[in-house]
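Schema walkthrough. Field components (list of strings):
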Amino acid sequence: MNSLLRTEQLVVGWQQPATRPLDLNVAAGEIVGLTGPNGVGKSTLLSAFAGRAKVFSGRIEQRPGLRLALQRQDVPPVVGMPLSGRELLALTGASAEGLPVWLAGRLDIRLDRLSGGQRHYLTLWAVLQAPADLVLLDEPTNNLDVAGVAHLTEHLRDRAAAGAGILVVSHDTAFVDAVCDRVIALKGHDVV
Amino acid sequence: MSSEIFLIPFLTGLVCAIVLPLLGCYLRLRDQWLAALAYAHVAAAGALLALLVGVPPVLGGLSMAALAGAGRRLFARRLSGGAGDALLLLGGWSGAVLLAANAPMAERLGHALFDGQLYFASSQELWPVAIGGAVALLALRALSSRLLLARVYPDLFRLRGLPAWPIQVGFDLMAALGLALATMSLGVMGAFALVFIPPWLAFRRAANWRSGLGWAVAISLVAYVSAFALALGLDQPFGPVLAVLLALAGLLVA
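Field assembly_structure (string):
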């Protein structure tokens, strides 16, 4: 298996440890889900993989030269800024090809003049389609309607089929079940 | 231009009217518009201090502004939420006013810096502004996409291993030096008005980033040319006339 990211007994946090020891492996072409209640450290784990949160014990191994992309829960600060969707995609190097029809025709509109769901999907797409081997997604279905979730599910499958590894943190059980090859549930302080 | 003696001041201000709103767009992008006002005041204090110790005021203004721009990052964590810029602004203002009040030779320059007497600009101001302006335009063109990426997707910026210093210290330094040069000609508030109001209006109306930059420069140029003619015709100091025209434009358009 072509492993992109592997952890051994990993404990991460900010000022203090926030997770229980975790063994995890994400391979190329695989979609792995990470679920669990609030406060269990799912987002902190993604931050640690991206080099922001602190590793207290255990270790993270990444394939040499691994290109990472991280989508955070908070929407990028684009309100009040004259930035169009097309310019946003150009910033991250993402292609507009494959965008849903309800967004493809709105690329030349300012991001802060789109609806919340449209803006969220476009800012998510800019990360999802950025050149990367491993994509880390934090609650990607927030603010998305049924059509958005369906399109995202289909697109994640295509992205994985093209060779990218994807690690998804989500509370949306139906979405996780539909899209993930494997799911790791962090329940309280026990990894299931 | 009816008289050649106004040509050099006009060209000096013209360069500022092109460069400052562009710089202002990126300062606004980074939520650093208050830093612009702080740099202008610190530059004024530096120019007055230099005059007192026998150094050319332009050098003093540039040096103090450069120190403020480069040093700003050192205190960013302790002085968050704009507190660092507010302290710089207060320090620069009080230093400049106290120097002007207590040293007769600094009083005249102090008035010029705060009134914005562009009509006294000579080739000594024009050349540094022209060269600095050209460098700033080239640097902004080169840094634009990275400044935007660092603001919109800071994680992606970091994960790509892009060097942070041109975006952090480099940009702060460029903004400080640009404001210092402009302050020497346009005055503290004239320079700040060109950095703040055209980008503010452009950000509200523009359809995208590129057109936002264009709108900011266009608004700035119209205001500048109008203020130049008006202040000359009415025999008024340039800085306040420019500031009041831009403020009125802001009230009408916003």
